[in-house]
Each structure stands twice: as structure tokens, then as C-alpha cells.
Specification:
The chain is of the alpha+beta class and about 160 residues long. The chain starts with a helix and ends with a strand. It has two domains: about 5-70, 2-Layer Sandwich (GMP Synthetase, Chain A, domain 3); about 80-150, SH3 type barrels (Roll). It has helices spanning about 5-15, 45-60, 80-85, and strands at about 20-25, 30-40, 65-70, 90-95, 105-110, 115-125, 130-140, 145-150. The chain has three helices and eight strands. The strands form two sheets. The chain has a five-stranded antiparallel β-sheet. Strands 1-2-3 form a three-stranded mixed β-sheet, covered by helices on one side. The protein is about 25% helix and about 40% strand.
Length: about 160
């Protein structure tokens, strides 16, 4: 079975349970890695087992010659595919920018395939007088200026 055929099988299995493929790799050392997530909620261990068994079944007797890793991408993994952006709209994210080398933290409000919009509040000095006021900030970022975007967790 070729890498393309195997990846197609994985995509079909994931679509059947409402999941999507984050990453698929197969190298010369016979290591197969599949990272998947659900459109809504989290992918279960049972779903990952079913996917792993489907890969093994597709490889047939050759499956013993492969190392197969099937997993969710993990909570600190950067976003790689559009479905991850869409899934996490409304959640807190951290975005690293290429142009300035800075990072922003805020709520992912919008994703259109080319840009994202972040929203956050910050305290700034009052226009006149002493003290600070809280202001809403929205910034639209081109994905071409984003080196990495991950979920932001507060423990």
C-alpha cells in the first residue's frame, strides 16, 4: 500500500466519525504517524484505536514491519490545518508574529483562510488625567505573518 493510498484510507475513516487529519507521515524507517482531532470536542481513545486498527488492517501482514503511532496532536501543538483554526474560534490563543518577532495573546474571533482576527482587552492611560481605562483591542493578522499559533491555557 502506498503512502497516498494509506493517507486516503485514514481521511475516510476520520470523516466517518466526524474527525479530521492534522498530520500524516510515513518515513523510510517504516514509521507511520497519524495525528487527528474532532471537529467538535476531543477525539477519544476508542476512536484512535479504531483508526490504528484500520491502518493495520490496510497493511495486512506487512503491519508487523511498521511502527504505527495514532494520536491527537496534543494541547500545546501549533495549528497546522484550517480545521484547527475553525474549531478553536472563541478560544484563547497565543500567536507568534514573523514581522516583529513578538507574540500576541487573545481570543481567536475569526479565520478566513488568509487572515485571523484576535480580540483582547488591555489597560491604557486615560486620555486626560490620572489612571487607566480598559479598552477592547482587535487586530487582524495575515497568516503569512504568523509563525505559530497555539491554544493558550491558564492553570
Amino acid at each position: 500500500m502506498t503512502q497516498v493510498e494509506l493517507e486516503t484510507l485514514v481521511q475516510q475513516e476520520l470523516a466517518a466519525c466526524g474527525a479530521f487529519l492534522v498530520e500524516f507521515s510515513m518515513n523510510a524507517d517504516n514509521q507511520i504517524r497519524v495525528y487527528a482531532d474532532m471537529v467538535e470536542g476531543h477525539i477519544s481513545i476508542d476512536q484512535l484505536k479504531k483508526l490504528s486498527r484500520a491502518v493495520e488492517g490496510a497493511l495486512g501482514e506487512d503491519s508487523e514491519n511498521y511502527s504505527i503511532e495514532v494520536s491527537s496532536p496534543g494541547m500545546f501543538a501549533p495549528f497546522k490545518v484550517p480545521a484547527q483554526f475553525t474549531k478553536h474560534i472563541g478560544r484563547q490563543v497565543k500567536v507568534n508574529r514573523i514581522s516583529s518577532g513578538t507574540s500576541l495573546k487573545g481570543t481567536l474571533e475569526r479565520y478566513d483562510g488568509e487572515t485571523i482576527t484576535l480580540h483582547w482587552t488591555e489597560r491604557v492611560p486615560k486620555p486626560s488625567g490620572k489612571g487607566k481605562v480598559t479598552v477592547d483591542v482587535r487586530e487582524e493578522l495575515a497568516l503569512s505573518d504568523v509563525s505559530k499559533i497555539v491554544l493558550e491555557f491558564k492553570f
